[in-house]
Amino acid sequence: MKVVPLRLQPGDDLRQALEAWMGEQQEQAGCVISAVGSLSLAQLRLAGATQATAIHGELEILSLSGTLSPNGSHLHIAISGSSGAVIGGHLCVGSLVRTTAELDPATGYAELRFSPQAPD
């Protein structure tokens, strides 16, 4: 299994960025195991709904998982707002990154650091 960390920038569309990355890969399938970070806008299709619900605010990504392929993706996300209430559903296009999930001078938070791997 190949594990690839990704860094998305503020304003990136989370779903579109993941699908674009998958389209550039030689592999025909992938999965998202984990993600942390934040969104300024979440577009979620809630259970049983046919259309996305827009949620605006300073939203923390608590969990993101699912499958990716060149033909589409199936991604579930759980987020929370400033009250701590958690909501989740299918991640839809239009979910915008607020900050990155890595050490980033723009945020000042050091949640995750990527370091080059030494050659074997």
**Overall shape:** globular
Helix content: under 10%
The count of helical stretches stands at 1
Q: Structural class, from helix and strand content?
A: mainly beta
Cα(first) to Cα(last) distance is 16 Å
CATH fold label of the domain at 32-99: 60s Ribosomal Protein L30, Chain: A
What is the level-2 CATH architecture name of the domain at 32-99?
2-Layer Sandwich
How much of the sequence is in beta strands? Answer: 35-45%
Main CATH class of the domain at 32-99:
Alpha Beta
SSE succession: HEEEEEE
CATH homologous superfamily name of the domain at 32-99?
A: Hypothetical protein, similar to alpha- acetolactate decarboxylase, domain 2
Radius of gyration: 15 Å
Topology:
Elements: H1 14-23, E1 30-32, E2 37-45, E3 53-69, E4 72-80, E5 86-91, E6 96-99
Write a compact overview of the structure shown.
This protein is 8% helix and 40% strand. The protein is mainly beta and 120 residues long.
Structural account:
There is one protein chain. Helices cover 8% and strands 40% of the residues. With 120 residues, the protein is mainly beta. Strands 1, 2, 3, 4, 5 and 6 form a six-stranded antiparallel sheet that branches. It has a domain at 32-99: 2-Layer Sandwich (60s Ribosomal Protein L30, Chain: A), CATH 3.30.1330.80. The two termini are 16 Å apart. The chain has one helix spanning 14-23, and strands spanning 30-32, 37-45, 53-69, 72-80, 86-91, 96-99. The protein is built from one helix and six strands, in the order H-E-E-E-E-E-E.
